[in-house]
Automatic annotation (TrEMBL):
Biological-process GO terms, alphabetical: dimethylallyl diphosphate biosynthetic process; isopentenyl diphosphate biosynthetic process, methylerythritol 4-phosphate pathway
Alphabetical list of NCBIfam families matching this protein: ispH_lytB (TIGR00216), PRK13371.1 (NF009911)
Enzyme Commission code: 1.17.1.2
Gene Ontology terms, MF aspect: 4 iron, 4 sulfur cluster binding; 4-hydroxy-3-methylbut-2-enyl diphosphate reductase activity; metal ion binding
Protein name, as recorded: 4-hydroxy-3-methylbut-2-enyl diphosphate reductase
Entry keyword annotation includes Iron-sulfur: yes
Pathway assignment: Isoprenoid biosynthesis; isopentenyl diphosphate biosynthesis via DXP pathway; isopentenyl diphosphate from 1-deoxy-D-xylulose 5-phosphate: step 6/6; Isoprenoid biosynthesis; dimethylallyl diphosphate biosynthesis; dimethylallyl diphosphate from (2E)-4-hydroxy-3-methylbutenyl diphosphate: step 1/1
Assigned keywords, A-Z: 4Fe-4S, Iron, Iron-sulfur, Metal-binding, Oxidoreductase
Main EC class the enzyme belongs to: oxidoreductase
Originating organism: Gemmatimonas phototrophica
One Pfam family it belongs to: LYTB
Keyword Iron-sulfur set for record: yes
Cofactor or coenzyme needed: [4Fe-4S] cluster
Gene3D superfamilies xrefs: 3.40.50.11270, 4-hydroxy-3-methylbut-2-enyl diphosphate reductase, catalytic domain
Amino acid sequence: MSNSSSETSSPAATYVRKGFGLKAEVQDTLAADYTGHLVDLLRARDYSLNVGETTIRLAREFGFCYGVERAVDYAYQTRIKFPDKRIFLAGEIIHNPHVNAKLREMGVVFLSASGKGFDYSPVEAPDVVILPAFGVTIQDFQTLRDLGCVIVDTTCGSVLNVWKRVEVYARDGYTSLIHGKYYHEETRATASQVEKYPNGQYLVVRDMAEADMVMDYIEAKAGLTPPRTPLSREAFLEKFSVGASDGFDPDLHLDRIGVANQTTMLARESLAIGAAVGEAMARAYGESHKAEHFRTFDTICSATQDRQDAVMELMREPMDLMVVVGGYNSSNTISLAALCAEQVPTYHIADPDDILVEDNAVRFRRIAKHHVEDTMAPWLPTNGPLRVGITAGASTPNNKIGQAVARVFAIRGIDPASVV
């Protein structure tokens, strides 16, 4: 695609989803920014480095997934394609502070959220706007279309698959029950897909506890006595006021349900919620009603599933502790940390700098305490056998994983440069 105004004035030319054919031009820069020597060494040595009494084990699936690589690649291509244009980004390209900081250094301006969408007031027709890997709501997309700016869409294909599922639910008269975080960009974008149909409805549940509230309401409405005291209609609407579509009514819109999920949630919980809601509908109205009024599909992305499976496989080995590297607002990283914390002391760090070598300390986010940040010192024993497991969320570059490994070695008195 040409950069000329004549070519960027048509709708086809102002929407880009397949990049600009500049992958070769950005490859070296991306490699320099995000590769890691120690990670390459771990891969080459069966995901294990052993130096003296210190063993570092890396989960076999970790870090950047295809969707993230594609999003970052396209953002870099966009900067090369439009060197003289103003380039905006709707939120963060991915939930990783280093990648986003790099884009800021490249002159990309980050748009801030405003209510349920982003504030596009700075954007004008000649500008370029990059859509993040999470996607944007249909309202945001239409706003950008109306502005006439160039749109570079990096929305992950796995997210698009969920959108298609939710759109079909809305078309067929099913309320989309979405396992996700109502405030997350991806979930907001997914939920907005129901608005393509006049009577489309959605309800977002954060976890099984909130799904239980939905199931209790369904069973109570059917005249059954659920295992927990069901919420009244008013209490239900208040509880889910920020996670439900406009006009949602539990007395009307829990009759036909289609289950979907934010792609980065804990996979086993998403599957369990889908199965449990289906069972509740069968108890309330019978199997024939469930067959006609309930749908569910596994919409967890394969990369999320692979990383969760890999960390569970790693947990079968004896580990003294786990380090999980990734942004504190990265949902898939939080899910990985939660899995690890069930079995072994786990430290979710946003940045390798959170490992303080001179103080033998670590700044980390506690999963069990509402994600409060804490500091522990001393952190590691400086002698004796130690096995440390490492993994990272899908938005974490390899170089940051490698830096975390290097800092663990340094606390143990091992020069990372000597690990060859």
